[in-house]
Amino acid sequence: MSAAQIRLFTLWRREVSRFMKIKKQTLGAPLLETFLYISVFGAALGSRVGELHGIDYVVFVIPGLIMMAWSINAFTNNSSSILQQKFQGAIQDQLSSPASPMELLLAFSLGGFMRGLIVAVLTFIAASLLVDLPVDHVLVLIPSLFLVGFFFAQLGVLIGVRAEQFDDVSFAQTFVLQPLIFLGGVFYSAELLPQPFETLTHFNPIYYMINLVRYGFVGYTEASIPLSLLALFAATAALFAVNLRLFSSGYKLRA
Amino acid sequence: MSDPTAPTSTAGPKALHITDLVKRYPAGVEALRGVSLDIEEGEFFGLLGPNGAGKSTLIHCTTGLAQPTSGAIQVFGHDAIDRYGEARQAVGLAPQELNIDWFLTVEETLDYHAGYFGMPGKERRQRTKELLETFSLTEKRDERTRTLSGGMKRRLILARALMHRPRLLILDEPTAGVDIELRLELWHYVQRINQEGTTILLTTHYLEEAEQLCSKIAFINDGEIVAQGSSQELSNRYGVPNLEDAYLALVGRKELSRSHVDAEAIQ
Q: Is B185 contained in some domain?
């Protein structure tokens, strides 16, 4: 391995080791949460709702839950990790190393991405054991999930770098991210909503992400797949460019 | 991806060469006001000054933790500001704050640090073992850093700074708040590595520390280097018997000096 590869790998390893050391909180809790959602919306409510667009309600909900698990964990991990290291001053060890802004950004991003991936895969395995979960369009599903994970990993980095206190991180998660995810159609089909809520949902970017992932699993979508994929790619690239600029300028990282 | 480790210049044998360094913080505070400073390879250099004089800012600018407003910094001839890779590779920083990662064990702290500097795994393991021994931390290798005593954290920070074998070691008030035994231990260790060829830049508030360890000393006050030389040269310059009085003359508190108090007692 070259020196640059060793740097990047070590920076990433540090991020992964952080969440692996507090597994109960970083992996166990989100898994339990997702399992509870499946139980409540699948077993309890699912039998009443029956089918949505010809798909079992619990199967309709699970793709959104997998996407939600990946996105929230990628976001939370990165925002918390960066803010904690800023608080402790420990981030100075990385910042005073020869690592480039690109290496630092990639490592911080991929830490949360990895946590989201682990939670999403475990959720998928658990869900597959409970219900018959199809994977209809794997070529849409894989890039969609990876882009969603990377997008929220970037968003977590952005919020973590900008944040000055833990309140800033929890504000972004509780008051912005979670409402957008919940109102993006994880638990329902936007077409069932009365106006103006149906139209309003189309302004929620997460609605398109949920549609992409749901299409990948069960083959049902309410939005254009190529357009959604393109928009998600463009948004992820734009966010990455913004973060790279922040890391290069040292914004809120270097005095 | 631009390669920050690409060499820049081979000119200049100085371990640290700072020219007209200005650092103005966004709030408008000018922490450094045109500092120029040279440290020769192998020197044990002391930087003294009151709190807020600009010592830590100078160190932060050298190590990339602060971004200079203007001026130039070279470490062994390598630009430390824009193409900083080689420069940072040559510097080890033991900061004033105990900035250790709470999530890591003692061993991981050393291993990861060396990884950030691109050191291969086998060499990292060997170096970690060596430094754990040197700093009497072997028994604590698997402990989380937050469980360490203050003295152990201080030793760990020094060990971490040395992991990647820096040619220039920066010690920012390394003995602040440590007991006499540990202070002497650290002194002996840094003297030894200086004798082995590592250049050292030390900031301290303990004047006897600077007097005993440093071959050259600079006084910094209000963001400017106001005097530099050996301890004897500085005493001569201020017309006082020792470094402590020279320092007090610098900060304008002559009335606190021991010689002043002794002279008054005789009268």
A: no
Q: Give the closest residue to B139 by CA, choosing from B100, B107, B99.
A: B107
Q: Are B219 and B72 in contact (CB under 8 A)?
A: no
Question: A85 — contact with chain B (CB < 8 Å)?
Answer: yes
| Model ipTM value | 0.88
Average model confidence (pLDDT) across chain A: 92
Whether residue B70 is contained in a domain is answered as yes
Q: Of A14, A88, A98, which has the smallest distance from its Cβ to B89's Cβ?
A: A98
Residues B203 and B128 in one domain: no
pTM: 0.88
Q: Which residue of A has its CA nearest to B69?
A: A255
Interface of B with A (CB under 8 A): 1-5, 25, 57, 60, 63-67, 84-86, 88-89, 91, 93, 95, 97, 99-104, 108, 112-113, 115-121, 160
Q: Do B102 and A88 touch (CB under 8 A)?
A: yes
Listed in sequence order, the DSSP H helices in B53-149 are: 55-63, 85-89, 106-116, 121-134
Sign of CA dihedral B165, B166, B167, B168: negative
> B254 by DSSP, 3-state: which?
helix
Are B24 and B150 found together in one domain? no
The predicted model gives A65-83 an average pLDDT of 95
Please report whether residue B186 resides in a domain.
no
Chain A: give the shortest CA distance to residue B233, in Å.
Answer: 34
- Does B78 lie in the same domain as B3? yes
* pLDDT greater at residue A36 or residue B72: B72
